[in-house]
Design goal:
Elements lengths: L1 H25 L6 E4 L1 E3 L11 E8 L24 H18 L3 E8 L10 H9 L5 E13 L6 E11 L5 E6 L17 E8 L5 E8 L9 H18 L4 E6 L26 H4 L4 E2 L2 H5 L24 E5 L4 E7 L13 E6 L4
Parallel strand pairs: 3-4, 9-10
Antiparallel strand pairs: 1-7, 2-5, 3-14, 4-6, 5-6, 7-8, 8-9, 10-12, 11-12, 13-14
Helix pairs in contact: 2-3
Length: 358
């Protein structure tokens, strides 16, 4: 009996070690700070002090379009992946909008690469093929990656990226890891690992512009992860500001501006806190859209998120933003809504700035 118990325990131990080794081999463990590859043509010019700079930030929802309610949406639908036809349509539409706007910098979130749900497409490459004449420089960073996720909704690979396209030279780029949610030790291996994609663009006078791109946690309910992420992000921005480096950041922050929480229905409020952690940034730095814009009489013009939810007939909240150093001067800004509602569950935010003069 004792011998049988020992054999059973040893067998369970061996199975546990094999499973641990398998999980270790299938998962991705990025460092706190990593240098990234930059693709940049030798002909790409540097920025010039005092010049105008047009910026777009847009969460592409991995080109899935708006005909679905996915299993991981707040509305908890049954859809698991888009069709190739829908992704092809969204790809063409994204390229059309970018080509029409022709921003100098494009900050993209939820761009898939090697994910089962999006047919293993390299979506940045597909987009660059359509915009090759506009953006000689680019860099990208994963914020979710695994060769195999055992969830029945995925049951395959995931690969989701932040991507930055630029008309101007990118000198170097880094991936900075943000705090992640406190899942159990096994679950944690398969979850997104939200990050900052930090690109440095040289100026002709020897200075630099720091451009940051991010996608913060999409929580099911308020927790400490988002405040920790915003605090970590704030430290990076404070460091750049203290060094005298002008900067801007865009992305999907998954957080509400002042006043919008009260305007959402009780069910739609579930992921948010009445006291938005985003105040850790807007208390110190200019935000686009600003709180008066996002919650004022013209607030409908500044809504950026159209959730996949049959109960909604249009955008109902703002979660995508641009923040920028006070060293930059904001010239104009807007959310492009009129022809983008069917491309993604997020809408592009655009702004034009003047860089600091010499």
């Amino acid at each position: 009996m004792i011998r049988l118990l020992r054999i059973t325990l040893l067998s369970l131990l061996l199975i546990g070690l094999v499973l641990a080794g398998l999980i270790y081999s299938l998962t991705w463990r990025p460092q706190a700070k990593e240098s990234l590859a930059v693709a940049c043509s030798a002909q790409a010019p540097p920025l010039v002090p005092g010049q105008a700079l047009k910026v777009m930030t847009w969460n592409l929802q991995y080109l899935a379009g708006k005909r679905y309610v996915f299993w991981n949406d707040q509305a908890r639908g049954e859809d698991e992946k888009p069709t190739l036809e829908d992704m092809a349509f969204s790809l063409d539409e994204v390229a059309r909008v970018i080509r029409d706007e022709q921003p100098d910098l494009v900050l993209l979130q939820e761009v898939d690469n090697g994910a089962k749900a999006s047919a293993y497409q390299d979506q940045l490459k597909l987009l660059q093929e359509r915009l090759t004449d506009l953006y000689p420089c680019s860099t990208q960073a994963y914020d979710w990656k695994a060769d195999f996720v055992p969830s029945p909704h995925i049951f395959g690979s995931v690969g989701r990226q932040l991507a930055t396209l630029s008309r101007y030279r990118i000198e170097h780029a880094e991936r900075l890891q943000l705090p992640i949610a406190q899942h159990n030790v096994i679950n944690r291996q398969f979850q997104p690992r939200d990050a900052l994609l930090l690109s440095y663009l040289p100026l002709s006078d020897g200075g630099q512009l720091a451009v940051l791109n991010t996608h913060l946690e999409r929580a099911r309910r308020p927790d400490e992860t988002q405040p920790r992420q915003v605090a970590a992000l704030g430290k990076v921005l404070d460091k750049l500001e203290s060094r005298g480096t002008p900067w801007l950041i865009g992305g999907d922050f998954n957080l509400l501006p002042l006043g919008q929480y009260q305007r959402l229905s009780e069910g739609q409020r579930a992921p948010y806190n009445a006291d938005s952690p985003l105040h850790l940034l807007w208390d110190r730095y200019p935000m686009i859209p600003s709180n008066p814009q996002a919650s004022g009489v013209d607030r409908a013009r500044w809504l950026t998120h159209y959730p996949n939810d049959p109960s909604l007939d249009g955008p109902d909240r703002t979660v995508d933003y641009l923040f920028y150093s006070p060293r930059l001067k904001r010239v104009e800004s807007r959310v492009r809504q009129d022809d983008t509602l069917r491309i993604s569950d997020h809408l592009p935010v655009l702004a034009r700035f003047l860089l600091p003069a010499q």
